[in-house]
Amino acid sequence: MTAKALPAVTVVILVAASVMVIGVQSAACCPVSALSCEPWIWAANPHPYPVGGMYWLQVYVDGRHVPGLGRYIVKLGGTRMLPLKVLGALGIESRMGGYDGLRITLLRHGKMVRLTMYDKRAWISWRRRELTAYPRWHAGMRYVPLDFLVEAFGLQMSEDPQTNALKITTK
């Protein structure tokens, strides 16, 4: 039996509760034998169910809705993770360091947090702390634990499961 080659681009359409989500992915990222693959371009989706590890949240920072931020929050190993590229929405500056690019320095209002990719040790203003989940690569981006960021920088976070809203207060 021979396997048929996949076309170069596959369009995935999921319909749930009359909400349509359209994703486009390259056939190169998804081998024929794979059971599931995450699409890499998604339209906005207010649907509360996880799709490919992504939890579609409506994110509010200081009472202001931040469109699109919720699509970047993923749950990896039961921990909510946020990529470095969107930390600016929380007023957090990120810098990469080290010869290997694995060291992360996060700055906000004079407070400094140092992390290393795939290491459960962190330093908050030069005090060592053990993380429950380590920073890691996922979908081509560097992710850090959101719950740790909230604790380290003194932010406040609440989640409303009925409206699927995540509210973060930075003040």
Protein architecture, described:
The protein has 171 residues and is mainly beta. The protein has two domains: 8-43, no CATH class; 56-169, Copper amine oxidase-like, N-terminal domain (Copper Amine Oxidase, Chain A, domain 1, 2-Layer Sandwich). It has one helix spanning 146-152; strands at residues 9-16, 19-26, 41-42, 58-61, 64-65, 74-76, 79-83, 93-97, 103-108, 111-116, 121-124, 127-130, 136-138, 141-145, 156-160, 165-169. The longest helix has 7 residues, at 146-152.
Helix proportion range: under 10%
Q: Give the CATH superfamily of the largest domain.
A: Copper amine oxidase-like, N-terminal domain
Strand content: 35-45%
Biggest sheet architecture:
5 strands, antiparallel
- Measured distance between first and last alpha carbons: 62 Å
Low-confidence stretches: 5-52
Key terms:
171 residues, mainly beta, Copper Amine Oxidase, Chain A, domain 1, 2 domains, five-stranded antiparallel β-sheet, four-stranded mixed β-sheet, 4% helix
Write a short abstract of this structure.
This protein is mostly beta strands and 171 residues long.
Layout of secondary structure:
Blueprint: E1 9-16, E2 19-26, E3 41-42, E4 58-61, E5 64-65, E6 74-76, E7 79-83, E8 93-97, E9 103-108, E10 111-116, E11 121-124, E12 127-130, E13 136-138, E14 141-145, H1 146-152, E15 156-160, E16 165-169
Parallel strand pairs: 4-16
Antiparallel strand pairs: 1-2, 2-3, 4-5, 6-7, 7-14, 8-9, 9-10, 10-11, 11-12, 13-14, 15-16
